[in-house]
# Entry
Amino acid sequence: MKWIKIRRNRKINQYGSSRKIFSQLLLPYNPTPEDLIRTVLHELTVKKGQVLYDLGCGDGRVLRIAAEEFGLHAVGYEIDTTRIQVCRETLRSLPLKIQKKIRIFEQDLFTADLNKADLVYIYGLPDVFPYLVHVIQTCQPDTILILVLYEPGETVKREMGIVIERKISIRNASWFAYIAKKMEKENSGAATGI
Ligand SMILES: C[S@@+](CC[C@H](N)C(=O)[O-])C[C@H]1O[C@@H](n2cnc3c(N)ncnc32)[C@H](O)[C@@H]1O
# Structure
């Protein structure tokens, strides 16, 4: 099955290091099981008031669980019109005080600025990761990245400037997430141009 379709409206460099790229990268919708979302946020011992971004937020379940059950502020980017409608319905069904913790952007995730993110949730294919380099560069050094199901290859990890710190799994490891952080600058291939 072909999972992604990439359409670029202008030429970009190898991994699109410019933040001005507006690529349309279409992942088919596939939701994360709610028990994985809960297990990950529980095991990361997230703190109330922290900010989680979900890049490609689908029906908004990650945002809802983060805000409603863990007291996080949650920001979602979603490009699919149908999904964003479902996501808005999810939001409207929540108590007002929870709604206030959630923001949804009908916007290309490749334009996201993650400067204020404590946690970034990404459920995307490995093919997507190289195009996320410029987005990850906007994270703070201590931002936690949650990569669902797929681990980037070694070269891409170096380009993204991240290291995988642990793997959290559920249901006999049939569902899992890699927990990553940005590399210290001196060890980063991206930063040193390796
Ligand atoms: C695998 S689903 C994950 C949904 C949700 N994060 C979850 O874990 O339940 C990926 C989502 O990314 C969205 N998506 C794909 N390309 C996107 C883009 N360029 N910008 C924003 N959202 C995008 C899709 O519409 C889809 O809803």
Observations:
- Residues 30-192 form a domain with the Rossmann fold fold (CATH 3.40.50.150).
- The longest strand covers residues 162-170.
